[in-house]
Design brief:
Blueprint lengths: L37 H45 L2 H13 L13 H19 L16 H11 L4 H14 L3 H8 L8 H7 L3 H8 L11 H7 L7 H15 L15 H19 L9 H4 L11 H12 L2 H10 L3 E2 L4 E2 L5 H11 L3 H25 L4 H33 L1 H5 L6 H14 L24 H4 L13 H15 L17 H4 L25
Helix pairs in contact: 1-3, 1-6, 2-4, 3-7, 4-7, 4-8, 5-6, 7-10, 8-10, 10-11, 10-13, 11-15, 13-15, 13-16, 14-16, 14-17, 15-17, 16-17, 16-19, 17-19, 17-21
Length: about 550
């Protein structure tokens, strides 16, 4: 049985599956009929036609303008990567001055028009810095200079996002600037931080330097993460995508072995603290909007409730994968501690892990990425303990068994959450227990692929053994080469986990056939019992039975 849990608060609670049935709504719209004269009808049709034609023209002009901006991103990235620190800061300051929406016109009559102009330039800047993902892996393809990105972010964080929102709403409802409102309708981000954070998704050094700088007394300052998660992202989900991109990139530095020359916290320590703060603060401050709710239901949402787009879900999946040691430990025994170091992930609780996982569990790439992190942790932990207990054969076998047992427990927990999410989102699965979610299948496939050594490219090479991280998320159709992911794990996951453990034991030279029948062979019972008749499938295995879980977010 999977253990029940709730993701709201710390009090454990069982929530019945029936409460998660999707609420499908039907609405009938009726309009009072009006008798119009042919002249009046023609006049209204003409007005509507002109209005729609004007809006279409504005959108076309907007698209044309934005398309011209994309090459500027390539040029700026190449330049900022070669400029000196001073040059980068100089150019950054000049750019920020053109988009800060402060009135530089002494004539008060020009105040509003100047702000509108700079707000549109801000949208353009977001487009220049972001929106570069030709390989479709949800990571910015361009590599802007670190000093340029950090300096630009420090300037843009002073711009009030509510001012930009007000300017947009005024333009929309006053019909004064159709092109400006058309930018928003096309999904362009108006948040001052959106573009620069998205660009940091392609530069982990810049992301870590900005989001978790060293502070006095050898401490880490992750206050920007907390502040950014408290933005009201509800009106700009694209901006939230940018934030999660930067956080995911910064979290990949957990495996860094670089030290701080000045004696302050290392890169890995800064990334560790950032990851813990990010998991907790996103879970607490950015609730997920229910895609099945109507707009009038959303009026009752708490402030900050946001629609998570696919990019944000994948980035959060990468963040969770980069917390593999703590995530595995939490889902195995409820404690967010890395057993390799004995350190607890700051602020993070099991409730936080469960909430974030549930919010992204309907996305195959997100669950595959999380599962890859869990699998890598199991194989790394097994190798780590084999080396640590060199010369002690009994302890080595025991720890191999334990490593995969914990990995299996965490994987079961992940797929259980994905199943519950599917029950909420899919009406069919509420009535048909045989429905399998693509997200669960993707998780199982990713775990199998990583555990068998078939996937290594996205992982940080030459990093810390205590925490191996993903530098980019797992994209299922690119990695597995199939439009529809099907689980490659056999029908009995216990058997598969057992196989991984035996493989590690064999590779370490720990298995001797004579030992299996010798006195004291009970030390190998988890291997010996598997070698009995094929029909004996009820014996003890190295993995625990799936824990039934219920999720409430």
């Amino acid at each position: 049985m999977r253990r029940p849990y709730s993701t709201e608060g710390h009090q454990k609670a069982v929530v019945h599956p029936a409460k998660f049935k999707p609420q499908w709504r039907q609405i009938k719209i009726s309009h009072p009929t009006q008798q119009l004269s042919s002249t009046e009808s023609g006049r209204r049709i003409s007005q509507n036609s002109q209005s729609h034609s004007s809006q279409d023209n504005n959108k076309k002009r907007t698209d044309s303008t934005l398309n011209l901006l994309q090459p500027l991103g390539n040029i700026l990235a190449a330049a900022t990567s070669s400029w000196s620190s001073e040059k980068n800061k100089e150019v950054s300051d000049k750019i920020v001055q053109t988009v800060d929406c402060e009135n530089s016109d002494k004539d008060p009559r020009g105040h509003y028009s100047e702000q509108i102009k700079e707000a549109k330039q801000l949208v353009a800047l977001n487009y220049i810095l972001g929106n570069h993902d030709n390989d479709a892996n949800y990571v910015n393809d361009l590599r802007f200079g670190t000093d340029f990105l950090v300096r630009t972010a420090e300037g843009l964080e002073k711009v009030d996002p509510e001012k930009i929102e007000t300017l947009y709403l005024n333009a929309k409802f006053s019909n004064e600037d159709k092109a400006f409102s058309a930018m928003y309708e096309k999904g362009r981000s108006f948040n001052p931080m959106s573009g620069v954070l998205d660009a940091m998704g392609g530069n982990a050094d810049a992301a870590l330097k900005y989001l978790a700088p060293s502070a006095k007394g050898g401490k880490v300052d992750a206050s920007r993460v907390e502040k950014l998660t408290k933005y009201d992202w509800s009106w700009d989900p694209t901006g939230f995508d940018g934030l999660t991109s930067a956080i995911a990139a910064a979290s990949s530095k957990r495996s860094s072995t670089a030290t701080n020359p000045s004696g302050g916290p290392s890169e890995s320590e800064r990334a560790r603290q950032l990851a813990g703060v990010a998991v907790h603060e996103i879970a607490a401050n950015v609730p997920q909007a229910n895609p099945h709710d109507w707009w009038w239901d959303r009026n009752k949402y708490p402030k900050g409730t946001t629609s998570y787009n696919d990019a944000a879900k994948v980035h959060i999946g990468q963040l969770l994968a980069n917390c593999g040691p703590e995530l595995t430990q939490t889902w195995d025994n409820g404690s967010a501690v890395n057993p390799s170091t004995g350190e607890k992930l700051p602020r993070t609780t099991e409730d936080d892990f469960n909430k974030l996982t549930y919010r992204v569990a309907d996305n195959e790439n997100a669950t595959a990425t999380i599962a890859a992190g869990i699998a890598k942790r199991a194989t790394d932990r097994s190798a780590e303990l084999i080396a640590k207990n060199a010369g002690n054969k009994e302890a080595q076998l025991q720890h191999i068994n334990q490593s995969y047992s914990q990995g299996s427990s965490a994987l079961n927990h992940l797929t259980a959450i994905a199943d519950v999410r599917a029950d909420n989102d899919t009406k069919a699965s509420a009535d048909d227990a045989s429905v399998k979610t693509a997200a669960s299948a993707a998780a199982l496939t990713a775990f199998t692929t990583v555990a068998t050594g078939g996937l290594s490219a996205p992982f940080q090479i030459g990093g810390s053994v205590a925490t191996t991280t993903l530098t980019s998320p797992i994209i299922t159709n690119q990695v597995f080469g199939a439009d529809e992911v099907k689980s490659t794990m056999n029908t009995n996951p216990d058997e598969q986990m057992w196989a991984y453990a035996v493989r590690d034991a064999a590779n370490a030279g720990l298995l001797n056939e004579n030992d299996f029948s010798a006195p004291g062979s009970e030390n190998y019972s988890w291997i010996v019992k598997r070698q009995r008749t094929a029909s004996d499938r009820s014996i003890k295995s190295i993995t625990r039975r799936p824990k039934r879980c219920e999720v409430l977010d």
